[in-house]
Predict the structure of Serine aminopeptidase S33 domain-containing protein.
Amino acid sequence: MYTMNAPYSRAAAIASPSATRSRAADPGGTSSPNSMAAAYVACRRLRTYQRWRPGVLGRMCRAGSPATIAAMTYVLVLAAAWGVTTALSMPRGPLTTAEALTSIVISIAVGLAAGRLWRSRWTLLAAPAAFLLALELGRIPVRGPSVDAPHASAFGFVALVAGRGVHGLLSVFPMLLGVSYGRGVAGGWKRLVTGAATAVLLVLTVLVALPARTAPLPGVAELTTVDGLNVMIRGGHTARPVLLFLPGAPGGSELGAMRKHLSALEDSFVVATLDRRGGGASYAALGRTVTMDDAIADTLAVTDYLRTRFHQDKIFLLGHSGGSLVGALTAHRHPERYRAYIGTGQAVDVEASDKLFYADILAWARTGGRTSLVRQLTDQGPPPWKDVYAYEPIMLYENEVYGQRSEFVVDVPEYTLLQKAHTLNAILDTWTLFYPRVQDVDLRREVRSLAVPAYFVQGTNEMRGLAVLFAEWYEALDAPVKRLERFEGAGHRAMFEQPDRFVTFMASLPT
């Protein structure tokens, strides 16, 4: 039977007879520099000639060696440097195909280097931990549910999965795989797991790399960018009038809905569908702030691009819902660029609309006995509120309360896999930055007249929070031509709910 000191004696004897002699020369157990160096050399020789299981002996030989401490330091610094770089260059995570592929490749390289530098299994924990800590500290100034502290709600869960979850899949996962290869893949089940993970990462990389595309047309059909903003341009004839469409909710994208419902519009117009800043493929263009003036400037930049490219002095401007606020203000301030303004699901006053929504949803909740919703709304009080989570009840229930149709059309090739994954997070992040800054917008005060023809399409089943204010504004609005078309039975998305009628209406406009 071995005594407690026997393994150490055997290790030293196997590794180096000189190590045994050194210990014999120091029977009191005092450790001189020479004896410590001899012990370290013994451990190194032991690792060369004998494969032993991690345990007391392994920890003794590995934990305090200068080489191990240096390797561990290099790993932590390397991973943290990549975390800081990520926080500065893509704080919300990889949002574009190029960013995603860059993240995968560099994360694998960092993991591979970390595994080679420090072959301990602790590298599997240390490298990702250093990366994540540096990333979270580096992006503290950035705001939005995708990067803020997790929130206990439906929106909070979505933000966590689509934000940190997707980012982890494109950074931590490949880093762990790189560490595994750097340390050396062992046989048995570990080799099988590593192989399976490699296959998953390869498939994921291919799917992420697939580009967005749009079906060809005789005239023009392309996805392009203007000042970092994504624009889908489609038209059967490039000589047709140009129509710029501004979609609704902050962070929303309507490329899918336009392709699914309104492709016939391309026979009469060159249709340019803008992903506003923060939405769809323009999510990556979202900075730390975005204001109404920014939205108007973006609209003008795209307008001028279209005017120049298609050799038209003026174009049509179409806005839906939240996009109609931007559209009306842009047409009011810069009428020289537009043939006409068309509003549908027209918004007028954000704060006043939200207060009507609040009152209607609260009444609906009380009538239906939804006590938890009643309690939540009464505790919050009427809007405006400080963050997007407070608006969650309105955003979740308004369609049910008003009998509206809701759809997210993402199953079209105009979206990449990443854009589909970030659909809701783009809305939540952009809403957080943009919505509080438009609370004081009121078209009844700011747009009392338009110097261009003004046309409106409203569903007879429009939500009260919008319909009441629109009726008041429309009645007082002064314009050279003013026309209102009502779609019977349609709601807030009248242009998509009755697309044939909308196409006929648009084709009837003077050009």
